[in-house]
Amino acid sequence: MNKRILITLAFFIIITALFAYLNRVDKSDRELNQENAVISIKYRDERRLISFSDLRKLQEYSFDAVLRSSGKEKKNTYKGILLKELLEAEGIKGSDIYQVITRAVDGYTVTLSGQEILEDDNVYIVYEINGKRLKTKEEGGSGPYQLIIRKDAFGQRWNKFLMELDIR
Ligand SMILES: Nc1nc2c(c(=O)[nH]1)N[C@H]1C(S)=C(S)[C@@H](COP(=O)(O)O)O[C@H]1N2
Ligand SMILES: [Mo]
């Protein structure tokens, strides 16, 4: 092969590789959430990704709660962490929180007041139900994470498939 052909070939290989690199798709927040059990926290123009192992560094709580939805009632045992303790561990002071907008992979949004979050034994992020990890949406579950607000008797605000916490 002569030198010119070799150089032309190398040039096209580099261009192709460059385009492949530029077109690479980062995993979306949805995929990160459903496939890798990641929650993102938005706080003051920052975005932080929280993994399951990050959550497991926090105090774990186990409690029973009755899920009331469309006429049915079912008592379950959940395991999870307190939202306020996650924010505390992230260095987000309670007195700086006006509200937290929680978003799920299906677009469902639940807004919590700062006051509500700081209550004891109220706002949890759970990852286990009756001894098993919460399944993903595709698997027919309500996870990998779900918001549980114990003082809300009805399940409307128990955001399933929890993906994002937007701290305002
Ligand atoms: N992400 C998400 N969370 C959600 C909902 C939803 O549609 N999407 N529905 C809410 C409602 S109205 C109820 S009653 C409970 C339980 O709903 P399910 O019985 O359909 O699981 O989940 C709540 N959380
Ligand atoms: Mo509901």
Question: What does this entry look like structurally?
Answer:
With 168 residues, the chain is α+β, with helices and mostly antiparallel strands. It is 26% helix and 36% strand. The protein is built from five helices and ten strands; from the N terminus they run ααββαββαββαββββ. The chain has helices at residues 3-22, 29-36, 52-55, 83-89, 114-118; strands at 39-43, 46-50, 61-69, 72-82, 99-104, 109-113, 123-129, 132-133, 146-149, 162-167. The strands form two sheets. Strands 2-1-10-5-6 form a five-stranded mixed beta sheet. Strands 3, 4, 7, 8 and 9 form a five-stranded antiparallel beta sheet that branches. The protein is elongated, with a radius of gyration of 21 Å. Residues 69-70, 104, 106, 108, 142, 155-156, 158-161 line the site of the ligand Nc1nc2c(c(=O)[nH]1)N[C@H]1C(S)=C(S)[C@@H](COP(=O)(O)O)O[C@H]1N2. Residues 69-70, 104, 106, 108, 142, 155-156, 158-161 line the site of ligand MTE.
